[in-house]
Design goal:
By secondary structure, this protein is mainly alpha-helical. The chain has one domain. The protein is built from 1 helix and no strands. Keywords: Coiled coil.
Protein backbone atom coordinates (compact mmCIF):
# COMPACT_ATOMS: atom_id res chain seq x y z
CA UNK A 1 0.00 0.00 0.00
CA UNK A 2 3.01 2.25 0.51
CA UNK A 3 3.86 2.05 -3.20
CA UNK A 4 0.25 2.66 -4.16
CA UNK A 5 0.12 5.76 -1.95
CA UNK A 6 3.34 7.13 -3.47
CA UNK A 7 2.00 6.54 -6.97
CA UNK A 8 -1.26 8.21 -6.06
CA UNK A 9 0.59 11.21 -4.62
CA UNK A 10 2.76 11.63 -7.69
CA UNK A 11 -0.28 11.34 -9.99
CA UNK A 12 -2.04 13.97 -7.87
CA UNK A 13 1.00 16.24 -8.14
CA UNK A 14 1.12 15.79 -11.91
CA UNK A 15 -2.57 16.61 -12.19
CA UNK A 16 -2.18 19.71 -10.00
CA UNK A 17 0.79 20.92 -12.04
CA UNK A 18 -1.08 20.28 -15.27
CA UNK A 19 -4.11 22.22 -14.05
CA UNK A 20 -1.92 25.11 -12.98
CA UNK A 21 -0.30 25.13 -16.42
CA UNK A 22 -3.69 25.06 -18.14
CA UNK A 23 -4.91 27.88 -15.90
CA UNK A 24 -1.85 30.00 -16.74
CA UNK A 25 -2.27 29.26 -20.44
CA UNK A 26 -5.94 30.20 -20.46
CA UNK A 27 -5.20 33.41 -18.53
CA UNK A 28 -2.56 34.25 -21.13
CA UNK A 29 -5.03 33.59 -23.95
CA UNK A 30 -7.66 35.70 -22.20
CA UNK A 31 -5.17 38.54 -21.76
CA UNK A 32 -4.17 38.38 -25.43
CA UNK A 33 -7.82 38.39 -26.50
CA UNK A 34 -8.42 41.41 -24.30
CA UNK A 35 -5.45 43.23 -25.86
CA UNK A 36 -6.74 42.49 -29.37
CA UNK A 37 -10.19 43.66 -28.34
CA UNK A 38 -8.92 46.94 -26.92
CA UNK A 39 -6.72 47.49 -29.99
CA UNK A 40 -9.80 47.04 -32.17
CA UNK A 41 -11.72 49.48 -29.97
CA UNK A 42 -8.93 52.03 -30.39
CA UNK A 43 -9.02 51.61 -34.17
CA UNK A 44 -12.78 52.08 -34.21
CA UNK A 45 -12.46 55.16 -32.03
CA UNK A 46 -9.76 56.64 -34.26
CA UNK A 47 -11.76 56.00 -37.42
CA UNK A 48 -14.79 57.67 -35.80
CA UNK A 49 -12.63 60.67 -34.94
CA UNK A 50 -11.50 60.74 -38.55
CA UNK A 51 -7.82 60.41 -37.59
CA UNK A 52 -7.35 57.42 -39.89
Amino acid sequence: SCIAQTTFDSITNIIEEASATVAKASMKVAAEEELKESANQDKLQLSKDGTI
